[in-house]
């Protein structure tokens, strides 16, 4: 049977997401009640980081421990990947010693090559083009707060980056709409969006994108790997801050999300991220719960 990987959001069907979301709810409840849920006893996760991380590392490592398994952290600096070992070879070796692998790297092509040579499931812990685990946590967070996300309107104000592309895939799977506003010169790359994706609309004006939104979300203006462009981006993104004025264009009960880390005063005002509509800490926590369900599903399949 073909190995199931999670390299981008569109890798799972709605049916699979419905299952994973139900398991996430159950696993979260067990975690909160200190009930054991050792479904991955004696299994091992290898985590490969070619970029920095706080949430992704913590949530995968703690999650694997809580499922009864172990997690091993590798980074480019002190593994042979940093000395040019081909990803194809690394995939062969790592996947003979563990049950599942998570990678945070640069190009999506790298994780795809890795997965092709892996004997075990591979999870995307962020690439330049995709951040599916975060959007899974965000969709779960929306559902927890407001119920079904189908038919809702999400406003994306900011960079056309990995988070946006995963949101656009999620919109197709779950049936919601994304209003996108990015500054000139930082436009959506059509190569990163499925040709049949009709679930988004572009707005030149970021405030207009927020009109009537059920959820307003943004991310850093300079993603990891693009640090050289920071000064130019600060100028180009002037006006794209999510502030109270933009939130007021959204629905009165709109949520605000940000995958974190955030820069108050750049992509979001302190008033918004620290205000009553913000659910950023729930999003961060939910990384733990949804990824435990994801690990379990990839390693064991459906368990009930
Ligand atoms: N949101 C997120 O992926 O955070 P880290 O970069 O800290 O893992
Ligand atoms: N878009 C950001 C997300 C960080 C979690 C980045 O890629 O750096």
TrEMBL record:
Its EC number is 2.1.3.3. It comes from the Bacteria. One of its GO terms (molecular function) is ornithine carbamoyltransferase activity. The keyword Magnesium does not apply. It is found in: Cytoplasm. It catalyses: carbamoyl phosphate + L-ornithine = L-citrulline + phosphate + H(+). Its main location: cytoplasm. Carbamoyl phosphate binds at residues 53-56, 80, 104, 131-134, 259-260, 287. Residues 151-297 form the Aspartate/ornithine carbamoyltransferase Asp/Orn-binding domain. L-ornithine binds at residues 162, 219, 223-224. Coiled coil: none annotated. Keywords: Cytoplasm, Transferase. Pathway: Amino-acid biosynthesis; L-arginine biosynthesis; L-arginine from L-ornithine and carbamoyl phosphate: step 1/3. Residues 4-144 form the Aspartate/ornithine carbamoyltransferase carbamoyl-P binding domain. PANTHER family: ORNITHINE CARBAMOYLTRANSFERASE, MITOCHONDRIAL, ORNITHINE TRANSCARBAMYLASE, MITOCHONDRIAL. Belongs to the aspartate/ornithine carbamoyltransferase superfamily. OTCase family. Reversibly catalyzes the transfer of the carbamoyl group from carbamoyl phosphate (CP) to the N(epsilon) atom of ornithine (ORN) to produce L-citrulline. HAMAP family: OTCase. This is Ornithine carbamoyltransferase. The lineage of its organism: Bacteria, Pseudomonadati, Pseudomonadota, Betaproteobacteria, Burkholderiales.
